[in-house]
Amino acid sequence: MTSAPKKVVLAYSGGLDTSIILKWLQVAYGAEVVTFTADLGQGEELEPARKRAEMLGVKEIFIEDLREEFVRDYVFPMFRANALYEGQYLLGTAIARPLIAKRLVEIAEETGADAIAHGATGKGNDQIRFELSAYALNPDIRVIAPWREWDLTSRTKLIEFAEAHQIPIPKDKRGEAPFSVDANLLHTSSEGKVLEDPAVEAPDYVYQRTVNPEDAPDAPEHVEITFEKGDAVAVNGERLSPAALLARLNELGGKHGIGRLDLVENRFIGMKSRGIYETPGGTILLEAHRGIEQITLDRGAAHLKDELMPRYAELIYNGFWFSPEREMLQAAIDRSQAPVSGTVRLKLYKGSAKTVGRWSENSLYSEAHVTFEDDAGAYDQKDAEGFIKLNALRLKLLAARDRKLREKG
Length: 409
Description:
- This protein is α/β, with parallel strands linked by helices.
- The protein is built from twelve helices and 14 strands.
- The protein has a five-stranded parallel β-sheet, sandwiched between helices. It has a five-stranded antiparallel β-sheet with strand order 10-9-8-13-14. The protein has a four-stranded antiparallel β-sheet with strand order 6-7-12-11, with no helix packed on it.
- The longest helix is centred in the C-terminal third of the chain and has 26 residues, at 383-408.
């Protein structure tokens, strides 16, 4: 039988569920608990988490601002790939989990803890993402997932446990929560309860970062985003840090109702789930990045990237950020981004972000070659005849053979 952990680092939000987990670890295992709360731009005040942890007897409390690291080392590399899971989802929750797991493992080493714990349920993707990341970084780490162990299987039992251990219960948590929310600087994700029937339109109050596109400004707004080697570095000519830049794009996107997604997706664990996502800044960033790649990437590189992208996105969704295959794909993607520098102008209007202009010193676009006017000898149109004949050769041979087969009957 596995011995009980003596010291556990808990990914702690300060909310009711993770406060119950904190107390449960103390009661069920008699373990000392270290809390780790990450500021990933979720927009919540984090000091209350410190006070709740102190109230629950925690001596070592880590509250860290990881916004810059999150965008610089996780979001931006992912956006170099134009990653979309199942063609639509910008992976806002998935890309945050490896960073949280990394810090859990590091803090465990710093504090001498022999285990880490998280609040993900046994039905979702996050348990997989946290644990695969943790094991990739420390193969000997022990991971505790209370939702897979305890008998607190209903909201009523959770409330009873909280009351029995003097854990403050917010008034809105005494009834059934309307839906579950995860948020960071890249997106918000809402699931469950009022959203569980995929046939029913999500109520507007579910959306937190974006105005209803129908209520967005009646006049479009133009924005220019500058890139260097595949990463956005400036908005309207103002250079910004990665986190500040994404926050600025979130403001612009939210104002114009950009980045809403109602998706039924395939979880790695095997079931389908319906989620409401808001990724205002990320939606703008993806459009802009594709815009600058249009003129700076060679066709072969661009098309190969698009072939690799679904696999890359699936690896992130399934929790394999720290896998050799993701790192191999990242190396190829990053190599492609060397010439991807320049500026893109976009029009933001009632839920849409559309590229309307792009320019770069590294542009492969040649007006001399594509013009309908006199190209002054830049391109000899007669060359196309031989090109077509060579490409048609196998098609002509196939057609001749098939005609003979039909004639034979």
